[in-house]
Amino acid sequence: MKRHPQLWLLAAIILAAVLSASARPAGVNPYYLGVAVDVGINVILAVSLNLINGHTGQFSLGHAGFMAVGAYVASSITLGLAARFGGPALTPLLFAGSLLAGGLAAALAGLAVGVPSLRLRGDYLAIVTLGFGEIIRVILQTTDAVGAASGLKGIPKFTSFGWAWALAALTVYVVACLVNSTYGRGFIAVHDDEVAARSMGINTTRYKVTAFVIGAFFAGLAGGLYAHHKQFISPGGFDFNKSIEIVVMVILGGMGRTAGVIAAAIVLTLLPEVLRPVAEYRMILYALLILGLMLARPQGLFTWERRTGAKPGPQPT
Amino acid sequence: MKPPRLQLDSVTIRFGGLTAVSEVSLIVGDRELAGLIGPNGAGKTTLFNLVTAVYQPTEGTIRLGGEPTDRLEPHQLTARGVARTFQNIRLFPSLSVLDNVRVAARLHCPHGLRQSLWRGAAFRAAEAAVEKESLELLNIFDLARYRDEPAKSLPYGNQRRLEIVRALATRPRLLLLDEPAAGMNPTEKVALTQLIREIRDRFQLAVLLVEHDMQLVMDLCERIHVLDHGVKIAEGSPTEIRSNPQVIEAYLGPDHAL
Question: B218 is in which domain, residue-wise?
């Protein structure tokens, strides 16, 4: 595993593709497949946000905004091109291209937001990224070309279980490989102590922007997958609540713990589905369960040894 | 003649109306053990922050090996061969002992983002080299056996030493130590004195240290600079400083001046 993580990524992608291709013929309930796609998308969102909020220690509340950029760019491309080059043979290529374009557009947005705002820390950064998310939503809501408040309809259903899980595997691979290298340990150094990191030769601004751009890229991919899964997107779906939902996954999973964050993303996606039988009490129970988990395991769902709570505060140097 | 490792020319820094450091000039030669002393609030740590580019001087120039350092960011300065430790220990608490050192080795690690993701043979070779160098450094300081423990779990004295190891991993030519003996017992202080001398000899670097423990400064340093209220009041060998009336006055008050 340590020597050749690429092989594991390849294996995971092939497995996702094979499972996905054989699921429908095998007669698996489409509802389950739909939930599985949701799980994959949320894993991408949570693991990529974990790079920013967990490993690098910056508090972003704008992940839904980057997701929206990816979703709208990717669906605009497929909607525009699918009518013209609608051949089934080209579909995977077209889809991959539009996802990539969505991811890159989100990364660009991440760069544009990140460069000026990453001088800020903690609460201040959270407020700026929150503002960014809202700006994106309002722009989309008032742009007629993308359907304004009523959103985009009739997006082709390209996202399958295989796409979602293969890209989730890719996200996990990228984030895990980054933080487990001499280069990537810089992210954790920035999280732990910026002053010390700088004096060890780490370009902290650059690391923060990099984390932001990579996180935004994967949020954009997730947005594209989401759009081609639900086949309908509207600005309301990418509001502040969506960002908070992803932040909760990261906190519950344990900031900076990739395995825990994956688990939390899975649990928090399945929980509302499992609670469907109790209908109107569903969201109350969901909230209570999160409260309970937070009280029982404040250090994260799957964090066994306790991470130090005492971060070195601002000190005269 | 070769330019000195560190040279300050009438360096001044003002914070609003407060002049924290005023027209300080000093020279630290290659492989010199230099000390910076002075009463509390004399501007010692501010001077350190000036040398490491945390602050920019209001007036005056700082030169490293003859080259001015103005407009450099702290991380660029580290790349030019200046490393430091902190008065209040600033290790990376969520990283292991080994990883604390490996972070600093990043500066000399050839690969970046792309190679970290691709993980080819060159990447693995570079990672192995970084690990080897880091472990060698830890070995010198007898810390290698704690390699996988969280840095924050080490006893205080070892944390101080780990901070020095981490600084050395950036391969500095000038090492700045901010109160390295703070909180150490007398035995540890003697060992530290020995250790700093060994570091200088082994790594061929210059050391500038701020320290309150006079015994240690007098034993260790070849040249001592004395600050008081942001002004340099004396400079010389330990013997000269010990008998300098101005220094005694700064430390003990005018009544004790001889």
Answer: 1-81+172-258
Q: Looking at the partner chain, which of A5, A173, A192 has a beta carbon nearest the beta carbon of B94? A: A192
Q: Is residue B87 part of a domain?
A: no
Same domain, B191 and B246: yes
Of the candidates A178, A302, A183, A191, the one whose C-alpha atom is nearest the C-alpha of residue A251 is: A302
Range of the domain at A193: 5-22+29-237
Number of domains making up chain B: 2
Q: Angle of helix B156-168 relative to helix B121-140, nearest 10 degrees?
A: 130
Claim to verify: residue B150 and residue B183 sit in the same structural domain: no
Max intra-chain CA distance, chain A: 66
Q: Would A141 be classed as within a structural domain?
A: yes
Strand partners, B64: B6, B67
Please state, in angstroms and rounded to a whole number, the distance separating the CA atoms of residues A59 and A184.
18
Asked if B83 lies within 8 A of A312 by C-beta distance, the reply is: no
pTM check: above 0.95: no
Check if A189 contacts B (Cβ < 8 Å): yes
Do A199 and B92 count as a contact with CB atoms less than 8 A apart? Answer: no
State the complex-level ipTM: 0.89
Q: Which of residues 176-195 of B touch A (CB under 8 A)?
A: none
Residue A78 falls within a domain, yes or no?
A: yes
**Same domain, yes or no: B189 and B245:** yes
pLDDT tens digits, chain A, 317 residues: what are they? 456 788 888 888 888 888 888 877 777 788 888 999 999 999 999 999 999 999 999 999 999 999 999 999 999 999 988 767 666 777 888 899 999 999 999 999 999 988 888 788 778 888 999 999 999 999 999 988 888 888 898 888 888 889 999 999 999 999 999 998 999 899 999 999 999 999 999 999 999 999 999 999 999 999 999 999 999 999 999 998 899 999 989 988 888 888 999 999 999 899 888 888 887 887 788 788 888 887 887 777 766 544 443 333 343 33
Which residue type sits at B176? L
> A114 in a domain, yes or no?
yes
